[in-house]
Amino acid sequence: MKTFLTLLFLLVGPLGAQAQYIEEIGTLETIYETRARSVLNTILRPTDYTLVVSVELDRDDKKLKEYQDEVEAQYLPGMPLMGEAPAMPKSANRLHEMKARTDIHVVLSRNVNPDVEKVIKDLLVSKLHLDMQSGDTVALKRIELPADPTVEKKPTELPELTWKMWALIVVVSLLALSGLMFWAWRRGQSKENPKDLKEIHEYAHGPEDKKDESGETKEVVAAGSEPNAGEMEVEMDLLSIKQHVISIATQYPQLSSKSISDFVLKGHSHEVTLFMEFLGWDTSKKIYTDIPAVAWARIGQAIKNKKADPTKSEMETAVRDVYKVILADYIQHQMENEDENPFMFVLKMKPEERNHLLEKESASNVAVLCLNAPPEVTSDIISSLGGEKKSRVLSELTRIEKLPQDVIKSVEASFKARIAEMKASPELRVEGASVLARVVRGMSPEEEMDILKLFEEENPEEFDRIRRVIMVFSDLKILGTELLSELFDSYDTDVIYAALYRSKADVQSAVLAALPQKKAMLVERDLQDGVVVPQKSITSRTRREVCIKAEEVLMSRSVRLSDLVDGNVVMGKTA
């Protein structure tokens, strides 16, 4: 029995001592919290903050025993107390001696002025006699407390109108009324005399004024009727012809001059004269500078022989005839230019089909095609190639000095054979990673973040395919500090903290290295504390916005995401 009691004492003794320490820690924390609140209530409202005190005691059983003896001596049974009970017993001094560290956490409302934070910290350190060098800390945080009052904006009142404003309103009203009366008067005048005027200042004669040779009366249509609308359409058509002719003459002056000269030498100088009158003689001299003197002489002779002004129908017929000649030569010239390029059939293919064709071609054949392609098409071809093949094609381009005709024909034949092979056995090309990436981007930001995390943890191979098609947040570290600084420059510290919350350490380091020093310190401190848990919607939405911005920047710089992931391209400095 004695042995059993001894064992029971050994087991229960440490637990009792541990409980006693916890009780005394709570006593000391209550004392500090009472003092801190007495200080904060002088400058803040009780609803503007909340307070948490954490105290650590030295595990000294001797000092604890002394403290307990003093407490028992102070509160002996039957001993009367002099006056009221003290707010803090004298025995609490022993607890202060046993204190090892004090942590004060003050959570402020967002409505509190930021200038008060330093004052609060200084007052707490002074009132509680904290020693920062010994490990005591005072931490200030800001959140939206439930008791924060909602600020209702007062409706803005409209200013009272002065006598000047009333005078302006009266003047404007009178002007509007006079304008309305003038419009009504003009409208009545136009209804009274609609029969005398016609468009382009032509007079419309009455039935009794003019008769033809057979004695029949000519029917004259008043202005504004349906035939007049047809004349407007004709004029608009001639205006578009004029603009197109000037455009062709500006782009191909020699071709246009040659077309006019040939038409004049074939005996159509009268039509060309009417055509130049339609364009204007000054405009014709400026755009047709290469017409020979013989043609100009015939045009001058046609002007001398002209007896009467041409009618509208004659002018329209002459303009259309000359326009057909110029347009035919222009189209023929364009077709000849296309026939001069032997690889036009490849350049006219869709970009997807052309890329599929060039995947199986040698680097030398692709280089020959690039030499005969426009610069923008060459850029698309080079950017669509893989890293190794791209370097080989560029190397071939630098080595080419002469291009014999038999080499061009050989490459042309190779392309035609490859196209025939593709048509004989077509392949349906579907990139599963691209389809999956589009599906992921079609989800909500929260679902996208969850599905990418699931792929990264459980299916790394599929995640690796996806990250080559769309930018994922964990790959921001490969973008470099310059691009990261550009991406996060417009975000506040709270939004950046939400985006980096529970992200990988290397991503956090890369983003913090790209931020300004003060902003980086604030975000890093919040990440280390981890007290505030951001909303999942803010985290996911910010991550998606940053990734989409990164894709747009890479596209503008003609950088493929797959090359960046493989390490073939390095973006500036990396953290």
Commentary on this structure:
- The chain has 575 residues and is mainly alpha-helical.
- It has four domains: 112 residues, GMP Synthetase, Chain A, domain 3 (2-Layer Sandwich), CATH 3.30.300.20; 107 residues; 81 residues, Annexin V, domain 1 (Orthogonal Bundle); 124 residues, Flagellar motor switch protein FliG, alpha-alpha superhelical domain (Annexin V, domain 1), CATH 1.10.220.30.
- 63% of the residues lie in helices and 5% in strands.
- Helix 2 packs antiparallel against helix 3.
- It is elongated, with a radius of gyration of 45 Å.
- 16% of the residues are buried.
- This is Flagellar motor switch protein FliG.
- InterPro entries: Flg_Motor_Flig, Flg_Motor_Flig_C, FliG_a-hlx, FliG_M.
- GO terms for molecular function: cytoskeletal motor activity.
- It comes from Bdellovibrio bacteriovorus.
Number of helices: 26
Relevant CATH superfamily of the largest domain? Flagellar motor switch protein FliG, alpha-alpha superhelical domain
Query: Could you name the ranges where pLDDT drops below 50 across 5 or more consecutive residues?
Result: 83-87, 195-227
Query: How many individual domains?
Result: 4
Category by helix and strand content:
mainly alpha
Q: Could you give a short account of the major beta sheet?
A: 3 strands, mixed
- What is the name of the CATH architecture of the largest domain? Orthogonal Bundle
How much beta, percentage-wise?
5-15%
* Shape call: elongated
- Binned, the helix content reads 55-70%
Count of distinct strands: 5
- The name of the CATH topology of the largest domain is Annexin V, domain 1
Lateral strand order in the biggest sheet: 1-2-3
Termini separation (Å)?
Answer: 70 Å
CATH class of the largest domain: Mainly Alpha
Radius of gyration of CA atoms, rounded to a whole number? 45 Å
The residue-averaged pLDDT reads: 77
InterPro entries: Flg_Motor_Flig (IPR000090), Flg_Motor_Flig_C (IPR023087), FliG_a-hlx (IPR011002), FliG_M (IPR032779)
Domain Flagellar motor switch protein FliG C-terminal: 456-541
GO molecular function, one term: cytoskeletal motor activity
Domain Flagellar motor switch protein FliG middle: 357-423
